[in-house]
Hints:
Elements: H1 17-22, E1 54-56, H2 57-62, H3 65-81, E2 84-88, H4 94-108, H5 112-115, E3 127-129, E4 144-151, H6 168-193, H7 200-205, E5 209-217, E6 229-232, E7 238-243, E8 251-255, E9 258-261, E10 269-273, H8 275-280, E11 290-292, E12 300-308, E13 314-315, E14 333-334, H9 335-343
Parallel strand pairs: 1-2
Antiparallel strand pairs: 2-10, 3-4, 4-5, 5-12, 6-11, 7-10, 7-12, 8-9, 8-11, 13-14
Helix pairs in contact: 3-6, 4-6
Bound molecules: ligand LMOEUUAE, 2-oxoglutaric acid and fe (ii) ion (FE2).
Fe (ii) ion is lined by residues 232, 234, 239, 290.
Amino acid sequence: MAPIPISSVKVGHIDDVQELRKTKPTIIPDRFVRDMAERPTLAPAMPCSSDIPTINFSKLSKGSKDELESEISQLAAACEHWGFFQVINHGIDLSLLESIEKVAKDFFMLPLEEKKKYAMAPGTVQGYGQAFVLSEDQKLDWCNMFALGVEPNFIRNPMLWPTEPEKFSGTVEVYSKEVRKLCQNLLKYIAMGLGLKGDVFEKMFGETVQAIRMNYYPPCSRPDLVLGLSPHSDGSALTVLQQGKDTSVGLQILKDDRWVPVKPIPNALIINIGDTTEVLTNGKYKSVEHRAVTHKEKDRLSIVTFYAPSYEIELGPMEELVDENNPCKYRRYNHGEYSKHYVTNKLQGKKTLEFAKI
Ligand SMILES: COC(=O)C(/C=C/C1=C(C)CCCC1(C)C)=C/O[C@H]1C=C(C)C(=O)O1
Ligand SMILES: O=C(O)CCC(=O)C(=O)O
Ligand SMILES: [Fe+2]
């Protein structure tokens, strides 16, 4: 997927938020201050009541027949009513979750000059910086990102894989393989929950695309004025999100027109349905808008994997999910075209998905 020409993207000066934070500004630069309507409602101090569903992966992978059936229906309900769920007992070594968190944190703590060696070029989404900034007047997120294309090999830019921290690249490789297996398995159970053959997505997706993005949100003296990450839905089929162990609550999802904070479960992984699954299921499973907010004193780290079909495939709603009561809501398109459309537009709720709507 060719990036859009760098010369045509004028993004203006983008402050690095970690460097900004070092100066402890009492006045937040205007480019980070959101318009009134966009300003966040911050997570209440008390735990929230409406938590997203929890799926016990071990009941899917090694449960009895009854456990498997019951967990598949819970998974189906989570996909249909929430689009977000937390997976416990996912089978990925906790030491690997710790290692990826450590290398990610160590990377963000490197001096700016070192991180700039891997700078994200304007109009592209890989490397260190702020993605999805496409104009000089666009508001900025209170976040530093580091993103890498992982699979297939041709989406990789080897120049962007850091040599420091020493274990960074090796850990990303091992972690990505494990997360990939989890995505493949979850898609199998999602297919079964839809009454389809378990291998339907695997067969359809071809050479799948996988990318990793690390988001670091430093504390912000005015969390009421800024957003850590703009509201968006993910373009992927599935997204896997790991939150740093001791990091503050920050992820919010839009549920029934209200922003609901996601309370992390230690060692769980958060999964969300992406735009691609919304299209394939003809809207039965929707990609849900989400955003990140910041905290006055605490920083936050998230490690996000996007798992998607090959750029080569053409997709649209699966025929089993279209009938006279559920007329076809999306057109057929090439997934590479959608990826290009996704990464060349700013994050703006579910606007990107209009590309596919009939
Ligand atoms: C919020 O979403 C993203 O940052 C994102 C970016 C993904 C990518 C990279 C970081 C590197 C190269 C490829 C890719 C575009 C996957 C979301 O990815 C979604 C969007 C589409 C479309 C998709 O396939 O994954
Ligand atoms: O940091 C978070 O919790 C949200 C990250 C996210 O939504 C993304 O990277 O797409
Ligand atoms: Fe996201």
